[in-house]
Amino acid sequence: MRYQAEHKLEAKAKLLEAAGRGFRRLGYGGIGVDGLAKEAGVTSGAFYGHFKSKDAAFESAALAGLEDLRAGIAALQAEQGARWAETFIAFYLGERLTCALDASCGLQSLTPDVTRASAAIKASYGAALERVARQIAKGLQGKTDEARLQKAWALMALLSGGVTMARSVASPEARDAIAAHLKQAARGLL
User: Fold this and answer.
1) Any residues with CB less than 8 A from the CB of 60 and at least 6 apart, and which?
2) Are 105 and 163 in contact (CB under 8 A)?
3) Within 10 A of 174 (CB to CB), how many other CB atoms are there?
4) Sequence-separated (6 or more) residues with CB below 8 Å from residue 5
5) Is 98 exposed, middle or buried (0-12, 13-18, 19+ CB in 10 A)?
6) Of 4, 38, 52, 129, which is most buried, counting CB atoms within 10 Å of its CB?
7) Mind giving me the DSSP string for 88-130?
8) From CA 71, how far away is CA 124, in angstroms rounded?
9) How far apart are CA 61 and CA 100, in angstroms?
10) 40-96 pLDDT, tens per residue?
């Protein structure tokens, strides 16, 4: 029995990771259950054994992406101390700007699809966004908790929206110029 429970958890984690990749690369409307199952190397029946619907898989993938972001920020804060934000900005506007979409940050790649999702998905995504913002705020300067949280929201919006815009241009020179301006604006927030 223990093996079956562990196997089921591993299979769900594999499917969730594959769903996240598929949704980030193709968007919610660009991939169906069959495509998600194929991405994970399982059958559609196996997909439904772990998720009751495509919406449930999307919500789980979007929330997992935000939790990965929150955990990564927490790790940077612990490892880098006061330099964490500069390291994060450089990473977000470097590697996360140019990586393949299926490896991109869920914040910038899945948020546009969340805007078209159900109220329930928006509510759970909003709560997860708040956890990310609060994690960022823990590492920022400011006179009050509210001032740090305000900076955190602004930094998240600037980086996520900016990376989305930079990914939307064909010219590498334009993309790099957008990134340079974003980096300067992000540093100004800090």
Assistant:
1) 16, 19, 51
2) yes
3) 13
4) none
5) middle
6) 129
7) HHHHHTTHHHHS-GGGS-HHHHHHHHHTTS-HHHHHHHHHHHH
8) 17
9) 17
10) 888 888 889 899 999 999 999 999 999 999 999 999 999 999 999 999 999 999 988
Integer Cα distance of 141 and 95 in angstroms = 25
Residue with tokens 């956890």: 131
Cα(39)–Cα(95) distance, integer angstroms? 23
Could you tell me the pTM of the whole model? 0.92
Taking Cα atoms as reference points, which of 144, 142, 128, 129 lies closest to residue 85?
A: 142
Percent of the chain exceeding pLDDT 70 equals 98
What is the distance of C-alpha 63 from the center of its chain?
8
Is residue 20 a contact partner of residue 64, using CB atoms and an 8 Å limit? Answer: yes
The separation between the first and the last C-alpha atoms of the chain, rounded to the nearest angstrom, is: 52
Question: Could you report the per-residue pLDDT of 12-26, keeping only the tens digit for each?
Answer: 888 999 999 999 999
| CA-atom Rg of the chain in angstroms | 18
pLDDT beyond 60 at 149 = yes
